[in-house]
Amino acid sequence: xxxxxxxxxGGGTAGWMAAATLSRIRTxxxxxxxxxxxxxxxxxxxxxxxxxxxxxxxxLLEIDEAEMLAAVQxxxxxxxxxxxxxxxxxxxxxxxxxxxxxxxxxxFHHLWHRLHAEGDRRxxxxxxxxxxxxxxxxxxxxxxxxxxxxxxxxxxxxxDAGRYAAFLRxxxxxxxxxxxxxxxxxxxxxxxxxxxxxxxxxxxxxISGDLFIDCSGFRGxxxxxxxxxxxxxxxxxxxCDRAVALPCNRDDGSEPxxxxxxxxxxxxxxxxxxxxxxxxxxxxxxxxxxxxxxAHDILVANMAGKPTADPNFLRFTTGRRKKFWNRxxxxxxxxxxxxxxxxxxxxxxxxxGISKLVSVxxxxxxxxxxxxxxxxxxGIEYARIRDxxxxxxxxxxxDDSEFWNHCRTMAVPDTLTEKTExxxxxxxxxxxxxxxxxxxxxxxxxTGQGIAMGGHNVMADxxxxxxxxxEIDGIEKSIRYLVGIMPSHAAYLRKYCPAPA
Length: 501
Ligand code: FAD
Known about the structure:
The chain has 501 residues and is an alpha+beta fold. The protein has helices at residues 13-22, 53-60, 65-71, 108-117, 129-135, 142-145, 161-174, 221-226, 292-301, 346-360, 368-394, 402-409, 414-426, 439-448, 465-485, 489-496; strands at residues 5-9, 32-37, 75-77, 79-83, 91-95, 156-158, 178-181, 184-189, 196-201, 206-208, 211-214, 231-233, 242-245, 260-265, 268-274, 279-285, 312-315, 319-321, 325-326, 329-331, 337-338. Strand 19 and strand 20 form a beta hairpin. The termini are far apart. The mean pLDDT is 96.
């Protein structure tokens, strides 16, 4: 059956990201794109920290960066600072760019380890531009200083989620997407194929379609409630199941930092996402070890100023749908699954879900092979991210609460154990199946959590020490020089993308 009508259910970040992308389909055939959402139900109201591929998502839509950032009170993000994770008082940054550079095929952290073994005491972090710039609250884009001798700057954004969805709504509507207001009250399925055919809204009006994109949030209106796809629960590996979100003013007079903060508490952790006009804050916690009131009080006690809204309490079950694409329904965003926001991966998964969908989409109809490829690749992506998140919880020496004792001693997937053991022994990291997190990410978090590299790639021993010292001195010098001439992040925002007052 040819696809002539695409229906998106949901007007949150996922729905509008899908609508904006699909509005650019140019095949010469008519495809009607309708998005239905309910103001009364609203959106989840969180999801403000992104990772670098999101910059490219906006570029592909030909969105002007400065205009978008001004519209969404956006700021730049160079990485995530983790505090109190490996042990209380610890702090490290997971940066978005690499450490140094590879020499003769050997990754930098092995070269650093070799020099370390020879007595060089400089920490790995000083060889990373994003870490140093974040530390000093500095920012510039590569385009501002483009020079072959200096390292590029890798970044993502902090965005106001509601404003970003509104921005994409304007974009998509200008390109022909029709938005319908209303609550979907009933979903009709075809008796033979089981495909979704028609949605009935609470005012009795109907919307029929050939392909449905379920962006209805945690409830999974089509993928779960209508099709009963099933859910794989990962709570035994990622036990946090609650969050309370609360934005605040920056009454402490601080400027927006160019990084997200993730500060561990006794049964979870707190995020701080700096926007131009306010901070986004939230406390992700495990209901088995902490009550809602306590989580709320800890959050309020650790914010930079007075709350600007009422607390938003959320419940979730970490995991994924058994199928992301079932019959003629593709689930994106929270409808597809959820892993907590520790590494800001949810919006990224919406992004990659959309690009996989667009890659396999054919307006001639839906085939099993499309669905199988989409489901297999998405499943791998989820599992690799899951392992990376578990790493933060499991690899800790914290024993100051029942929660941390549980996380430290819980069983973890074999795939993760293999990764940490290889690193412990030889510093080796294999990037599996095109996974999102690369060598820098794994190195940053494993070393940050306190796993020491027990050795390095034997090829690093074949490089002359003098040459190695010269190279890494040069790297450190150029990073320090560059950070020295950069403006502060706050000054950069004021000049490049100031939001209207
Ligand atoms: P929602 O925002 O819930 O939107 C669902 C839409 O469906 C709404 O428009 C609603 O009105 C509509 N709808 C539902 N039912 C019906 C119906 N019956 N009829 C009509 N319409 C209906 N992600 C990140 O990348 N970075 C982060 O920092 C981050 N932080 C997070 C923190 C927390 C605590 C949580 C829970 C999530 C976080 N996320 C984060 C995830 C992020 O919020 C989501 O991925 C993103 O907002 C997309 O949500 P959504 O569009 O899938 O769902």
